[in-house]
Design brief:
The chain has helices at residues 2-14, 26-32, 51-65, 96-110, 129-132, 137-144, 150-154, 157-164, 172-175, 177-192, 204-218, 255-263, 267-277, 282-294, 301-331, 339-349, 365-371, 378-386, 405-408; strands spanning 20-21, 37-42, 69-74, 124-127, 194-200, 223-227, 240-241, 244-245, 352-355, 390-392, 395-397, 419-424, 428-434. With 435 residues, it is of the alpha/beta class. The strands form three sheets. A six-stranded mixed sheet has the order 1-6-5-2-3-4, with helices on both faces. It is elongated.
Length: 435
């Protein structure tokens, strides 16, 4: 076990996955003495986790693969409060019903990444509302609040940023969040002999508070490890696209769009992300980088990252669908696409519109394609029609078809009696669904 855990910490460090770690070699020694229980918390601030959550989730998995027991804590209680850490303003408070429903969805998502049927180190999912919800305010103030110094809490960098921002400040509600998170660690230490908390680097102060509370209440030695908050080389926020966050829920971010996100990773980021988001070894990643540097043309790393990350989150079927749609968009041939593939494209893969085919009798293609936003002016459509460069479900249209929109979009010509993919020139696409 000692060699395994030394290799685990070394591997995390080699991947750049360790931002801070308590003790000077104490955590490594602690891990080497046997299987340990660790946890990471996930607050339900939305109805899905996003890419930023994937880093600590995969770290939980890496610890489990090394023989340790992971606990994923879903914040049914802390989600009602809101973590102020490095947030510019107060979070909007959601109702208990909404938070409870989000907890259920997040519980299901974390279950994809850790193993619940592997013997002694099988994973567990817990909800901190189970203990925080039973505590009276007087018990909280006496048993928890007594152990926290206001001086130390006020001096935390995340609190100072809020206090020093004009017009911002911080409510007592969010100020108390650190106490709830500290209570979680102490409670898990009592219930499960949990001795390690992991989280993002913005959670360091909260983790240290939990370590101190576990020592005071339980006379226990506990540890903390944080992972870096993921940023891109150009300083842009990781996991954001023009359409918003990249979610783990396929109903919010389709497998195709998820796959495309990774394909578009910058060369300066791709090898780092291979370390963060895949289980390829450091040696394999170094070999991929060396081969990319020795070859001409586009690096292969983005394709490997997209494949590994999509398969990890969406499984074999999600990966195959993403690859199939990608190939169809490249070739312009939609004949291989399934109905669910087209639903993915409508969700977030292509600009899309509903189509009233009964209203097309007197509508020129030039007008229809301009009004849907595919082009700025009908002239561009007219020019493309003159070159037979407008394709509707793969069928080329010419100038003589401009006044035949009703015929071009006849229902019997649609894919699955619902969809039309219009391609204009080499790069412009639009998806219509019959309303």
């Amino acid at each position: 076990m000692s060699e395994v855990n030394s290799a685990l910490i070394n591997d995390l460090q080699a991947r750049g996955l360790v931002a801070q770690m308590t003790g000077d070699g104490e955590l490594e020694r602690h891990l080497s003495e046997g299987s340990r229980t660790l946890y990471c918390g996930f607050d339900p601030t939305a109805d899905s986790l996003h890419l930023g959550h994937l880093v600590p989730l995969l770290v939980l998995k890496r610890f489990q693969m090394a023989g340790h027991k992971p606990i994923a804590l879903v914040g049914g209680a802390t989600g009602l409060i809101g973590d102020p850490s490095f947030k510019a303003e107060e979070r909007k408070l959601n109702t208990p019903d909404i938070v409870a429903s989000w907890c259920d969805k997040i519980r299901g998502q974390v279950s994809q990444f850790i193993d619940f049927d592997c013997g002694d180190n099988a994973a567990e999912v817990v909800n901190n509302l189970d203990w925080a919800g039973q505590m009276t305010v007087l018990d909280f103030l006496r048993d928890i609040g007594k152990h926290f110094s206001i001086n130390a809490m006020v001096n935390k960098e995340s609190v100072q940023q809020r206090l020093n921002r004009e017009g911002a400040g911080i409510s007592f509600t969010e100020f108390s969040y650190a106490l709830l998170q500290g209570m979680d660690f102490a409670e898990l230490n009592r219930r499960y002999d949990c001795t390690l908390q992991i989280g993002g680097s913005d959670q360091w102060g909260n983790i240290v508070g939990g370590i101190d509370l576990s020592r005071r209440q339980n006379q226990a030695q506990t540890f903390g490890l944080t992972v870096p908050l993921v940023t891109k080389a150009d300083g842009a926020k990781f996991g954001k696209t023009e359409s918003g966050a990249v979610w783990l829920d396929p109903a919010k971010t389709s497998p195709y769009s998820f796959y495309q996100f990774w394909l578009n990773t910058a060369d300066d980021d791709v090898y780092k992300f291979l370390g963060y988001f895949t289980f390829l070894s450091a040696e394999e990643i170094a070999a991929i980088k060396a081969e990319d540097e020795s070859r001409e043309g586009r690096p292969q790393a983005q394709m490997i990252l997209a494949k590994e990350a999509t398969q990890l989150v969406h499984g074999d079927a999600g990966l195959l669908a993403a690859q199939r749609i990608t190939e169809a968009m490249f070739s312009g041939d939609a004949s291989s696409l399934s109905e669910s593939d087209l639903e993915q494209l409508k969700l977030d893969g292509l600009p899309a519109s509903d189509l009233d085919i009964l209203a097309l009798a007197d509508t020129p293609l030039t007008t229809l394609l301009a009004e849907c936003g595919m082009v700025k002016a009908g002239r561009e459509v007219k020019d493309a029609l003159g070159r037979n460069a407008v394709l509707i479900n793969g069928e080329a249209k010419g100038a003589e078809d401009n006044m035949k929109a009703a015929e071009c979009f006849a229902k019997e010509k649609s894919l699955y009696n619902r969809f039309f993919i219009v391609k204009l020139g080499k790069k412009k696409y639009h998806l219509f669904e019959i309303a």
